[in-house]
Amino acid sequence: MLIRRPAAILPSEITTAKMYRERRRFMGLAGSLALAGTLPAGLARAATQPLGSITKSPLSTTESQTSYKAVTTYNNFYELGTDKEDPAQNTHRLKPAPWTVRVEGLVNKPRTFGIDELLKLAPLEERIYRMRCVEGWSMVIPWVGIPLTSLLRLVDPQGSARYVEFISHYDKTTMTRGVLDWPYNEALRLDEARHPLTLLALGLYGEVLPIQNGAPLRLVVPWKYGFKSGKSIVAIRLTEKQPVTAWMKAGPSEYGFYSNVNPEVDHPRWSQATERRIGEFSKRKTLMFNGYADQVASLYTGMDLRRNF
Amino acid sequence: MTPGKTSLSAIKAALFLLCLTPAFLLWRGLETDSLGANPIEALTRSTGEWTLRFLLITLMVTPLRKFTGWHWILRLRRMLGLFAFAYATAHLATYVWLDQFFDWEGIARDILKRPFITVGFAALMLMLPLAATSSNFAIRQLGGRRWQALHRAIYPIVLLGCVHFWWLVKKDITWPLIYTVIAVALLGLRGWWREQERRKQLAGGYLPQQPKFEGKVIKIFAR
């Protein structure tokens, strides 16, 4: 079998001139349409469009980024289909605008946010994060978003709030039925949710978040397996009790509440010691907390991570 | 309809090419980088699924023959079985080479520790003696009955293959379920035939047909 050694820069990582021009043209078109007022602002943004001024973050990795194509065609977003290629092909099943997010539960100022409000809540930052899937593959993705903590501050969590639950959009008329208990939900401990690394992402590669990546807004928790980062979020709920998440319901022995990336704690059915970085030929060793141990290990001092998997 | 010798050879050649098509398409996919973002996973998954499909196709030969009366299709079965083995070998090769990169210790640990790999590996090991005895010479050496008994190992092999697939998927078991239903139907059919045969024999309704002799019969009496 002929396997070519990948060059230092993979062909797939290079945006072709044609694609580049197409994107430019499309962006220009979307922009002019919005300006002409022929489209509601929200809908225009649903098309691929730049997000405006974005500041770089010192929390970003300098590792080489996974190609835009791979990031937008290899997705786990079961509501849009369970094969990796499905979500990119079924984007019509999710309308990202108009969209609101309810923040509710144990907060003193419950509030519903529109996407425009979120975009102005805090300066948009680019965060280039490693993303490690529980299935054993990984990517490096330039997200754009705001720290989740800036949103939590606005709603003023009550003293009794200990967990933050994230509920994803679900429409049974257009989305996958069965497989998981819908709507998809995920959750973090409040201190995890307030951690500076925890990002509420609204964009990707400097543009509005594509539907298959969880438009219009999703969570990104880079030291946990990818499924912890819920997509297309419609509600954020602060609770006292630890929520039972969709994957915990689906397989309590396989998916725990914490789901921190940990090369020493295997998935019951496969090893987590190594991962394949998408675009690379050889596997690489998985790092503790996905390489974010310096920033997050202190959240778990004294905890048995084998038991709290 | 029974094809003659030449047309059977032509059918076999055509079938051979047809069976190679998935491998060819995968090869092309690798060359043109069109297997998606994770080509190694696509390769592993595809060779595995083709193994299972070829096992099921092989098991379809006998029912098809019984229902249609096309006894000649039995002559195609060996090739189908050997293609199942070929795709299984490619599947193992992608795992050993591309997934584990010849980390024999890791592979041994996987086989012992990961039930889905244990089961898949067992299925492949069971296929070895079948592939090795897929020749006229081997049938002669073993004798038809023993050869047939040995090759019934395809029944547990296909079930192990289904379990292997079932246990490896994360959550959506649609495809493992489809393959398993087909496998169980094909095996169930054989069980049912067996039961019919047993009942027929018990009822005494079964009398072997008197062999027809041609030419002169010389009776031999013991003196």
Radius of gyration of chain A: 19 Å
How many separate domains of chain A?
A: 1
Per CATH, the class of chain A reads Alpha Beta
Total count of strands of chain A: 13
- Approximate strand percentage of chain B: under 5%
Low-confidence segments of chain A: 33-46
Oligomer: heterodimer
Structural class, from secondary structure content of chain B? mainly alpha
The main β sheet of chain A shows up as: 8 strands, mixed
Strand content of chain A: 15-25%
Helix and strand pattern of chain B: HHHHHHHHH
Radius of gyration of chain B: 22 Å
Which regions of chain B are unreliable across 5 or more consecutive residues at pLDDT < 50? none
Largest interface in this structure: A-B, 30 and 23 residues
Largest sheet of chain B: none
Q: CATH fold name of chain A, please?
A: Sulfite Oxidase, Chain A, domain 2
CATH superfamily of chain A: Oxidoreductase, molybdopterin-binding domain
What is the second-level CATH architecture of chain A? Alpha-Beta Complex
Morphology of chain B: globular
Helical amount of chain A: 10-25%
Explained architecture:
- Chain A is 20% helix and 21% strand.
- Chain A has 309 residues and is of the alpha+beta class.
- Chain A has one domain: Oxidoreductase, molybdopterin-binding domain (Sulfite Oxidase, Chain A, domain 2), CATH 3.90.420.
- In chain A, the strands form 2 sheets. In chain A, strands 1, 4, 5, 8, 9, 10, 12 and 13 form an 8-stranded mixed beta sheet that branches.
- In chain A, strand 2 and strand 3 form a beta hairpin.
- Chain A starts with 16 loop residues before the first helix and ends in a 13-residue tail after the last helix.
- The relative contact order of chain A is 0.16.
- Helices cover 75% and strands 0% of the residues of chain B.
- Classes of the chains: A alpha+beta (309), B mainly alpha (223).
- At the A-B interface, helix 3 of A face helix 3 of B.
